[in-house]
Here is the input.
Amino acid sequence: MTKKLIAITQRIYKDNNTNEIRDCLDQRWVDFIKKCDFNLLPLSNKIDLVEDYLSDFSISGIILSGGGDIALPYKKVLDIIDHKKIVDKLDYLISRDLIENKLIKYSLEKNIPLLGICRGMQAINAYYGGNLIKVEKHVRTIHRLDKYDKDFKDFYPDKVNSFHDFAITSNCLSSRLKPTAFKDNIVEAFVHKDHNQYGIMWHPERELNSSYYDLMLIKRVFRF
Here is the structure.
């Protein structure tokens, strides 16, 4: 039986010694997705027409991976059409913003489930007009989730890792999104009110022993 294919975005890294701009994906994603019984399709940030590219594959979901910060607020790039021209003229990091912006829209148009991880969650919130704030003591730590939405209490771990300098509060969250987990006033997870789009602030792939709850959440999101 053919496994479901999940497209996943990558962070961008520039090697100043060689002037190479590289797409990077944590290898732990391969192990984690394998446990979910899916396959991964890593997406380069250099793809001009990601919608056309994805038409060559039968994908069952999209993951906006974590790592790094949003380069520009999405409201500044919503109407950009010529991807290559913009990438050539502006900072190379913006190309990831453009790709992920298009993928959020593609998810809506094709009704393909989408999950944002950490930075990816922030990208979804920004796409729908939400904001971020600077926070402290949320990098390289572990904390409990204080409150859960009753529909997700069986899909979120009690404790999660945390690797972010910026966060979404209740006041920063887009009105299009429903919070489903908190740490104090920080939104740790959400779901779109009308579409199959989700966000979590922790990194399930970074756990040495994958959480049962994380595995179940991935399977729920992508309708295993």
Remarks:
- Helices lie at 28-35, 50-54, 83-89, 94-110, 119-127, 212-221.
- The chain has one domain: 4-221.
- The domain at 4-221 is CATH 3.40.50.880 (Rossmann fold).
